[in-house]
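WARN  no MSA supplied for this record, continuing single-sequence
INFO  ligand: iron/sulfur cluster
INFO  echoing inputs
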Amino acid sequence: MGKKLIRKNKADIFYLEEINRLRKFKNAVILAHFYQQPEIQDVADFIGDSLALSQQAAETDADIIVFCGVKFMAETAKILSPQKKVLLPDMEAGCSLADSCTYEDLAALKKKYPGHKVITYINSTARVKTISDVVCTSSNAVNVVNSFPEGEKLIFTPDKNLGNWVKEKTGKDMVIWQGSCEVHDVLKIENIIKLKELYPDARIIAHPECKDIILKIADFVGSTTALLDYTVKSKSTRFIVATESGVLHQMKKKSPDKEFIVVPADETCSCNNCAFMKMITLEKLYMCLKNEKPEIKLTKNLIEKAKEPLMKMLTIK
Ligand code: 13P
Ligand code: SF4
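INFO  complex generated
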């Protein structure tokens, strides 16, 4: 067992050295989402939530963007920076939520509700974005919905939990697509109550992709960045965290004296992982930088159409 550990460390040291050499040599930037494995977060040039990563992708002057996240995020980077080479270390890193609403599903919904403007959560395919009016992320969804005038008919897709949460916050009626994230939607209120009984002083914090019953009892609801900021600023020293466990890495780094308890996905583990996000490894990142593939390739037409609702989002404060 000891030997295995040394071998793994040696390999990781090699990958890290090569990643550092290659990114400089190729003028590549490594962007990583907060749900990535700790070693990926630590090697990244920039870590963030979906909104911050989109902004970085739109502004970077690197020649290559290596996206350590899932496919819709890398596609977004390509749409915002089409002249750059955008790499995703594992093309299989998808998203159950993005898959829950296809282009055909949304086209049919728009036909059913003519005259409605479409607000699409960034966790969606590039094709779905092409028939949307504006994109939002969990950090700006309330502002994006509020940017529409009173009385405008709205469709919100694809996340039902985020959609209902925004509906309640803004008081705006919306047709909501019934999609959900397989990581957040399975979290159970019973498990949170059990944890709260064990740790009565703990603050409950939750991502808006969780079920509404969880969002109702949470002390704070927000995107991954908002949750992280809350734990830094809060006077509390213990938090029950209802989101993907990757974010705990930064929470612990920023507040080493505080305690973070992740809400378990089921009775057999004490964690809550997005299997897609965890597909990215140091080895795959190294191979991807070395071979400059897998590369995100989108047609000019798709990029042009999907860029509009994304750019619109970036102008909304
Ligand atoms: P954020 O908008 O907080 O980055 O969330 C992205 C995501 O995939 C949540 O499941
Ligand atoms: Fe998609 Fe959920 Fe994974 Fe986020 S956590 S990438 S919404 S499956």
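The mean pLDDT is 95.
INFO  checksum written, moving to next record
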